[in-house]
């Protein structure tokens, strides 16, 4: 049986993984969701100084504190950035890295690079206007849906996402990944692609072509960008398959 460390995306906490974690435990696995600094129950620990390095330290510290071995490290969405940074620091504790509707970050890359300059500027303005200069509130669904598929989320799940989301420390979006250490050659590499990402991969986008080739293993999940909410059991099934 495997040990899963489940890292949530922007605005989320460990709570988002509850159903998937429970399904994994029912299959005999150890499933450990974590909440990053400045979010959910750790919201009061965040501040203007909270950045990408903070979240990288959260992940490595969590694994080391619990003395975890043979870890399958799972990144959803934004978590791809700190997970990429943490993966190379975990040494032989890491057995597998799984990116859920996300992909590894390159050195010098930050979250704002994933969006058009105008959209990035709008986020900066939003942080200045309503986030005390350092917090990014979750955008309205009509805005969020322009870049991230809401497919599969029913009204109750959307309400949960809206009411339990907490503002994201904006330093985690602006700080560039300094040195994503290379994964060890023996680290298993897995991609779980949902609707929009599946389309990009199938379209042959050059910068993503490597994800369709060994040593990467790809699994497709026909739902929107938040599969731990819209399809938690199906996501657990795929995660189970990655370690079988």
TrEMBL record:
Domain (AB hydrolase-1): residue spans on this chain = 4-237
The portions of this protein that span the membrane are none
Cross-referenced InterPro entries: AB_hydrolase_1 (IPR000073), AB_hydrolase_fold (IPR029058), Sec-Metab_Biosynth_Hydrolase (IPR052897)
**One GO molecular function term?**
catalytic activity
- Do you know which Pfam families this protein is assigned to? Abhydrolase_6
PANTHER family for the chain: AB HYDROLASE-1 DOMAIN-CONTAINING PROTEIN-RELATED, ESTERASE_LIPASE_THIOESTERASE DOMAIN-CONTAINING PROTEIN
The name under which this protein is listed is: AB hydrolase-1 domain-containing protein
Give the organism's phylogenetic lineage. Answer: Bacteria, Bacillati, Actinomycetota, Actinomycetes, Kitasatosporales
